[in-house]
Write a structure and sequence with these properties.
This protein is α+β, with helices and mostly antiparallel strands. Helix content is 23%, strand content 34%. Among the domains are: 121 residues, Immunoglobulins (Immunoglobulin-like); 55 residues; 174 residues, no CATH class. The strands form five sheets. Strands 18-21-16-15-29-28-24-25-27 form a nine-stranded mixed β-sheet. The chain has a seven-stranded mixed β-sheet with strand order 8-7-4-5-19-20-17, with no helix packed on it. A six-stranded mixed β-sheet has the order 10-9-11-12-14-13.
Length: 595
């Protein structure tokens, strides 16, 4: 083999290597003689049951003019007859002339709500180079977590892990029974929302080192928001400190981090995993249940926020009377009074007028009774991390609303967030329920400039709907220590008042403060041994949260040098502007910032 052939082969292997753990959706070249090319690659080879699928688009535009391409995406859950849900998005990309450019897209995945359902994602391109398309599809069993596995672990272990996972869920589900999707550590996305639909990530410490700093930061943020991160260590010296991971408490190889947890597991150099404990770690031992299961099951009849919000029945009697009156007027009265014998031609005039007048009356009554816009309630759990330079708030927000007449359903979420519709218990108002497997809903989601642009059936006129929102918000808000000699004195830099705060000192003692205002120092009072202030507070707080938020919050309540607090003045993450939120109750926790 000549030196040139060796060089060509090496170059090919170098280019092809990063794609080994990815899925090429299409590689479009309109003319073999032209350098023009558009390639779309899914960075994970299986889409999640909700959240996003990261897709990398590379465009080579050899022309002298800017070219615009449109990428349309469709995600569906495979339900028969369109009874499930569909989520679409449209991206428009400008390709500069004479250059090769790379663009990372977050393709929204519809939330799979049917038990044992499938996720199908399709990407379609149109533009000056012609059109092309490609897609991915996978299936999930009822309670199966969505896991990402690095390619070095995937190749030697996939078949044994798939077999063990299949045993775990008894073969339920359709099509694939894969334990995990695979990824290339060198090509990981740098936006935490790319991982938001996955429950767990497993990789080696070498993979961790090969990931870019931006990707590692995104994974750690996803981990704080509830992700299960497992790092299999080939080096005996690998621990949280050497890997650059800050735990919430002292620990070297395992730690809880906000709502998630991280574990470092020793691994032999042959990269062979013990399938049973590996699968169990994600199926049976995670801190939080599979996100798909939480979305399907947490917001039904036992959802506390829905109980507090209350029920409202339809006024059927009034509308029935109007329809009966309409039948009488448009029938006998119309026939024998308005257009009696010899004047039947008037029916062509009187009938439309009666129908129009009745329609106007019905619309007026609906507006009078239900009004425009709507009202709702929200409960949020927020972990604030001012330490290690994070300056971020990790947020779970549950919300329920009931709408009257809506003039539009589109809105924008300006914070970096992930929004998921949740099925409610069956009622006269609910459109998406635990019994209708998606209800034929159609959603539109576009991630642009870090914002969510949303439209479709998220909110509908005269209906009741719930959403679960996860967000990571930059903030300088914190509780700062001023003096801990004697009763601890703190300062709140949050821009809203706090009603009640509890602090646990380094010896496990509890302190309380009330009516805390922004920018003013306050001193806590000690809770005596027999008092139940903290216990009652935590009991009420936990009962106010949905099951997933509750499980995330419970371990955070008793951390030394941390606080828990409640406020109804925090703004929350806004969605549809026409909704008047009657109450936003926010439970806040985090470490006290030291001077």
């Amino acid at each position: 083999m000549s030196a040139f052939q060796l060089f060509s082969l090496s170059a090919f292997l170098f280019i092809a290597a990063p794609l080994a753990a990815q899925e090429v959706l299409f590689n479009h070249q309109p003319d073999p003689k032209s350098k023009a090319r558009v390639e779309a690659v899914a960075l994970f080879n299986q889409p999640p049951p909700n959240g996003f699928l990261p897709v990398r688009v590379t465009i080579t535009n050899p022309g002298e003019q800017e070219a615009e391409f449109t990428f349309s995406t469709t995600s569906s859950d495979g339900s028969y007859g369109g009874s499930g849900s569909v989520t679409t998005s449209t991206f428009r990309i400008q390709a500069a002339p004479g250059k090769t450019s790379r663009h990372d897209l977050l393709v929204p995945c519809t939330t799979v709500l049917n038990h044992g359902g499938q996720q199908s994602v399709n990407l379609r391109m149109t533009g000056p180079f012609g059109g092309n398309q490609g897609g991915l599809q996978t299936s999930y069993s009822d309670d199966q977590p969505a896991v990402l596995l690095s390619e070095p672990l995937y190749t030697p272990n996939a078949s044994s892990l798939d077999a063990e996972a299949s045993v775990r869920h008894g073969g339920r589900g359709y099509g694939s029974t894969s334990f995990a999707a695979k990824f290339d550590p060198r090509e990981l996305p740098e936006d935490w929302r790319a991982y938001s639909g996955y429950d767990g990530i497993a990789m080696t410490d070498t993979d961790w080192g090969n990931a870019s700093p931006g990707a590692r930061n995104a994974i750690l943020r996803w981990n704080r928001l509830g992700g299960e991160l497992v790092i299999h260590a080939l080096s005996t010296s690998s621990d949280l400190a050497t890997l650059g991971i800050a735990p919430d408490a002292k620990g070297t190889r395992a730690a809880e981090r906000s709502f998630g947890q991280i574990t470092i597991v020793p691994l032999a150099t042959d990269l062979k995993l013990d399938s049973a404990p590996t699968v169990s770690r994600f199926y049976s031992s995670p801190r939080l249940p599979a996100l798909g299961k939480s979305i399907r099951e947490d917001f039904g009849g036992s959802w506390q926020l829905q109980a507090e919000f209350g029920e409202q029945g339809y006024n059927y009697g009034l509308f029935i009377l109007i329809l009966v009156a309409f039948g009488i007027v448009v029938g006998p009265v119309n026939l024998f009074v308005f257009a009696k014998s010899g004047r039947r031609h008037r029916l062509f005039i009187t009938t439309p007028i009666i129908a129009l007048a009745t329609s106007v009356l019905l619309v007026a009554l609906i507006i009078l009774i239900d009004g425009f816009g709507g009202r709702g309630m929200r409960t949020a759990l927020m972990e604030v991390r001012p330490d290690d330079g994070e300056n971020s708030a990790y947020l779970y927000q549950e919300q329920i609303s009931r709408t009257g007449v809506l003039l539009g359903g589109g809105f924008e979420v300006t914070e970096p967030a992930m929004l998921t519709p949740v099925p409610l218990a069956s009622s006269q108002w609910a459109r998406l329920t635990q019994n209708n497997r998606g209800g034929g809903m159609r959603y539109e989601v576009l991630v642009r400039d870090g914002k969510l642009e949303v439209d479709g059936d998220w909110f509908q006129s005269r209906s009741e709907q719930g959403q679960f929102l996860r967000a990571i918000v930059p903030t300088r808000g914190r509780i700062e220590a001023r003096s801990q000699a004697g009763p601890p004195t703190f300062l709140s830099t949050f821009d809203f008042p706090i009603e009640t705060l509890f602090y646990r000192d380094e010896n496990g003692g509890f302190w309380r403060a009330d009516k805390i205002t922004p920018g003013n120092a306050f001193t806590c009072r000690e809770i005596a041994a027999g008092e139940k202030d903290h216990t009652q507070f935590m009991s009420e707080a936990i009962s106010s949260l949905g099951p997933r938020s509750r499980r995330a919050f419970e371990p955070l309540a008793d951390r030394n040098l941390h606080f828990v607090a409640v406020t109804t003045a925090a703004p929350g993450i806004d969605t549809l502007k026409g909704i008047k939120w009657q109450q936003t109750r926010t439970f806040i926790t985090g470490p006290v910032a030291q001077p």
